[in-house]
Amino acid sequence: MKNIFHITQSEKWEHAKILGSYRTDSLETEGFIHCSEVNQVVNSANKFFFNQQGLVLLFIDAGKVKAEVRYEEAEIGELFPHIYGELNIDAVFGVSDFEPGEDGLFNLPPEVVDLE
């Protein structure tokens, strides 16, 4: 499996590290945690997190995720990775501050560009 990425609030990630696993509201309401592939990160960030501060981008080794990872079609016909269950934090191999620019839009952090 390849790397996947998840955008979350810094405080939620810090709390997850204490608990040993990460949960999100979408896991309760939709049954999965939304993730993106590298080419989907910026579009997802700009669509759902425009101009939001205090975010981090989690770098996840999909092969180490203990919960089921499924690639499912979104409204636009593109496949997005979803984690069905809690994310074990040992599957996260990197975390980057993820802040928008002055225009409120996001760009890939240099650490992600280096993974390509």
From TrEMBL:
InterPro entries: DUF952 (IPR009297). SUPFAM superfamilies: ADP-ribosylation. This is DUF952 domain-containing protein.
